[in-house]
């Protein structure tokens, strides 16, 4: 019964997921580009990556900042969805394994500490888009992607 009712709207699901993930990544990516943000743009983010021992921190600061801003906008539009979603999966895997490694024993937010569950939810949403694609309410179908 629900299939008959909701089936014609199945492409709304990927649209909602793309827009939600895109907005979240955009909000988290913009400070990594903006030198006036508390993060101090790519230079500040590169310093954070350097402290964690990430190789080529300046390069990866730019990669992450551009993925989380420009990639987020493209994700919202549904252009290059699968490849961008794969990039976000890698982004979140690295965030969980490198930035949140001290919190891995406590999976959820404990008191004021940030756990890894939010990053994991973003990873799961991005991974779902890798498999489902953008849906028909997107630019990908116009370009045969």
What do you see in this structure?
With 145 residues, the chain is mostly helical. The protein contains 6 helices and no strands. It is elongated, with a radius of gyration of 17 Å. It starts with a helix and ends in a 13-residue tail after the last helix.
Spell out the blueprint of helices and strands.
Layout lengths: L1 H5 L5 H22 L7 H11 L5 H21 L3 H19 L17 H16 L13
Helix pairs in contact: 2-3, 2-4, 2-6, 3-4, 4-5, 5-6
Q: In a few lines, what is going on in this structure?
A:
With 145 residues, this protein is mainly α. The protein has helices spanning 2-6, 12-33, 41-51, 57-77, 81-99, 117-132.
- The outline comes out as elongated
How many helical stretches?
6
Strand content: under 5%
Rg: 17 Å
Given as residue ranges, the uncertain stretches (5+ residues, pLDDT < 50) are none
What portion of residues is helical?
Answer: 55-70%
Q: From the helix content, strand content and strand pairing, which structural class follows?
A: mainly alpha
Mean pLDDT: 90
- Could you give the count of β-strands? 0
Largest sheet: none
Q: Give the helices and strands as they follow along the chain.
A: HHHHHH
- The end-to-end span amounts to 32 Å
Keywords:
about 140 residues; mainly alpha; about 0% strand; elongated
């Amino acid at each position: 019964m629900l299939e008959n009712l909701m089936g014609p709207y199945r492409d709304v699901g990927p649209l909602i997921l793309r827009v939600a993930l895109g907005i979240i990544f955009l909000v988290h990516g913009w400070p990594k580009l903006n030198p006036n943000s508390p993060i101090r743009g790519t230079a500040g983010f590169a310093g954070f990556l350097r402290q964690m021992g990430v190789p080529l921190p300046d390069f990866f600061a730019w990669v992450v900042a551009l993925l989380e801003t420009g990639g987020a906008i493209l994700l919202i539009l549904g252009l290059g969805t699968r490849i961008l979603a794969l990039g976000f999966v890698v982004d979140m895997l690295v965030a969980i394994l490198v930035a949140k490694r001290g919190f891995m024993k406590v999976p959820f937010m404990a008191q004021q500490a940030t756990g890894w569950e939010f990053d994991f939810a973003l990873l799961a949403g991005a991974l779902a888009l890798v498999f489902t694609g953008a849906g028909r309410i997107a630019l990908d179908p116009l370009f045969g992607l």
